[in-house]
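Reproducibility note. Readers wishing to regenerate the assembly model reported in the main text can use the exact inputs given here. Chain order matters: entities are listed in the order in which they were concatenated for prediction.
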Amino acid sequence: MHRYHAGERDRLAMLESIGAASVDELFATIPPEVRCGPLDLPPARSEEEVRREFWSYATKNAEPECFASFLGAGVYRHVVPSVADALIQRGEFFTAYTPYQPEVSQGTLQAIFEFQTYVCQLTELDVANASLYDGATAVVEAVLMAQRMLPARGRVVVAGALHPEFRAVLDTYAAPMGMSVTAVATGADGRVDAAGLAAALGPDVCAVVVQSPNFLGVIEDLPAIGAAAKSAGALAIHAVAEATSLGILAPGGRFGFDVVCGELQAFGIPPSFGGPHLGFFATRQDNLRQLPGRLCGQTVDTQGRRAFVLTLSTREQHIRRGRATSNICTNHGLIALFATIVLSLLGKRGVREVATASHSTAEYLKAGVRSLGSGVRLAFPDTPTYNEFLLLHDDPDGLLARLQSEGVLGGVSTTAFPGALPRGILVAATEKNSRQECDRLLDALRRLS
Amino acid sequence: MAYPKEFRYSRTHEWVKMDGDVATIGITQFAQEQLGDVVFVEAPAVGKKLGAGDSSGNIESVKAVSEIFAPIAGEVVEVNAELQAHPELINQDPHGRGWLMRLKVAGAGEELLDAAAYEAFLAEEGAH
Amino acid sequence: MSEKSLRERESLIFERSSGGRVGYQLPALEVPAADPAATIPSGLLRGEIDDLPEVSEVDVVRHFTRLSKWNYSVDEGLYPLGSCTMKYNPRINEELARLPGLAQVHPLQPVDQVQGALALMWQLEQALIAVTGMARVTLQPAAGAHGELAGMLMIRKALEARGERRKTVLIPDSAHGTNPASAVFAGFDVVEVASTAEGTLDLPAVARHLEGGDVAALMITVPNTLGVFEPDIVRAAAMLHDRGGYLYMDGANLNAFVGVAQPGKMGVDALHINLHKTFSTPHGGGGPGAGPVAVSAALVPHLPVPTVERVGDRFELSSDRPGTIGKVRGFYGNFGMLVRALAYIRSLGRDGLRRMADGAVLNANYVRKALEADYHLAYTGPSLHEVVFDDTAQAAAGIKNVDIAKRLLDYGFHPPTMSFPLIVHGALMIEPGESDGVEELDAFISAMKAIAREAREDPALLKGAPTTTPVSRLDEVRAARQPVLRWRRAP
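Running the prediction on these inputs yields the following structure tokens for the assembly.
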């Protein structure tokens, strides 16, 4: 018997009660031709043996915490208050199901309500859902919503500096839904080329997607892009990959965007080799009935006490089936709880401080690069950035390897992505990067680039 | 509740009240009972042309969505704006203030049931 | 209110805010502070976000700890939600997923730096191949529904590769709602197939639909949502394949036959595996899950990219797959959940996984036998891992399934699934899982029996339930009619 299961006595007692001689009898409806023999897997292992195997995986990875790390490109390394992980490890949270029985799920429900509030506050929009899988699928959901609202329009326009992962996933979903995707070239300043955008727009465009700060780290002119989208009658979608930027940068909601969506990983969620992260989605009140995913709302119980419940579920697949606003069921609830706790701890002051510290650290690096004089140079020296910037270099992978040998993970090479990106290294800085780490990077760049 | 004699009824549980060439349409007492508390009504746009049997919107309760089918062909000339703020009118007064839309129609909807036939239809349905 | 304990009147975090409190201290800024306005146009900047809370670290710990106590959870007791497969979530899996060498790894580090992560993913793929008997597995989808979409996109791609544009997907009326939704988002039209009187697939109906030549796939759950093994699954697969269609299996109920049978032997072309069901990654109050998709050889060319490939003693991420559907999400999957699932598979091992299925089926049949006299069985076919009763026997007293469920809360149990499957009116879908021993099941059974008695003798008790929970029944109509979906500062 196994430590996760009941014992032989339980088995015998239950078999006797059922009137079966063996458990095998209970599988009698499964035909012989689909049966299998013992699985080709190792035997049961003790906790200690399992730990040994996984430690061996862990030690074969280079752990960024052991380096001076400037990796970003959609996944960022910010401070992680220890309280957040301690609280989500409470069994009452992580071993509960989706809160379909509100009377015994008020903890999860109230936390979702708080999460929705945080997303509305960050985005300056009216309504937000209870989470999506990740930034890429959040952008897809926004585009699908635009298509539902404007079914006669079959084209979506995206900024060229949309995160390549977001773009790739959008391409996967768009074609089967009969949509085409037009990318607007990035201008010499790293931003959406305004003339290119104007040329790409037309009466067949249902949505314009712009990421800001964009994949190259550059802050886009959201008011102008939002206005252009609106004048073409399309939905304006602001995608966010570095959510701590919302601590100092005004979100699309302020500029008339219909959707602000993307990735909240930057609020302390472990990189975890790419997931689970945290997709978010906020929109205007008018679009409420088209919103994808779960929603929690406030109501009262029979005694008039405030309480929370999943609501407006008729949008969802378990009721509307093939006509649902999304096929999503399981979302990223526990990660949303994590972000809710982190945002609570950071609070009004911390959310801003994380952003200003990250920005300051990146500006320090940029100034240092300017004074290097050779080897690498800033791709967009005159365009504002938040905490990430592109360094041009002919051999980014070689340079990164040399940096790594000195204990510096200098950034992400643009050669890792498809498309016509300039050759170079995306360098991201956060409040976790000390001045000493920054100086090590600059010194290594001076010598090695 | 009695089903008004002056109405005509569809097998998808809509009622029709003719007034010249304008048909007022709603859902029946039976339909609202089946649906439970109505929380939202999605009405068609004014000006939309509907064929008989066309889907023309949805009525939602907390845990169900029910399509509204046009019981008769015509062009939408008015929708009940009061339902946006007060969807409960469908539960409270389905044959009156809970009306859904008005259509300008060409025919009279000959294939629709009269009150007696609709009640017989309900009895037959209930038997299954 | 003043009589309530602190626990019962915990406010929203925003309402706890008190000017000047901070919950976290950042490292001192050692570089010069940059004024954002020096480089960023002022129109693109924002000030402090006014309504964010100001709370201390202690406030936050108290707040979320109190909230947690309002939840029911697997750690507390039996969670017999049919179709959801709630089982024990081992703590060792949590520990391992948090190893810094796994949790802190960035997805864009060069492959030489992430050999351990890739080895782990490769090992999980091999384990899932061993379980399912399929050709390959993509670990990319983030959840079951996401896996369905990935699988249906692969089927679409395979048809396109043959120059066909079939539009129809057949789905039994007993299916999960995600099935039709996923098929639609993959660009297909759904045709619902009514189940037979036994609640199983209507094979002649499938044959009739196949005659049209437009059927791309059948999506079917095995065992189905009644907990009954689909007796015609092999014949259905053969019929579909003869007509150039594909068989998609919803693997939500895979836990019923792990180590007993394999989808690979049933003629399945694609199935998703809910790691958060069969392989015990925690449900987390709604997610995250993971929905790897196992495919037959026919669909291997269309797998999402990148795949993890073993080359000698190294692992690589390969995007060299000309027929791929592309990517369905960022990066490679919910890696943290993959760690937990592989740890679970290793802990249970070959025999433990089989015992898992044995236990799930034994427990469901034990509960079924014990409650047959008290509750009406919607369908009487033999049960595997779950059993679906309904409220017919209690209808005379005016009692509905929801009343039984709410009363069960007063007995300290999470209720069964009620809204599902749609072919059972007033369903009580019980999936006890394999984690519990006979005395836990007996306690649940006695509660259910007591409720059946109360339904006859004192139905008001059920109608008024629950009375012992943090809140009583909620006004869901009000929540939907006047949606309040976020906190706002009172004006």
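We highlight two features of this model. Chain A touches chain B through seven residues (CB under 8 Å). The longest strand of chain A covers residues 205-211.
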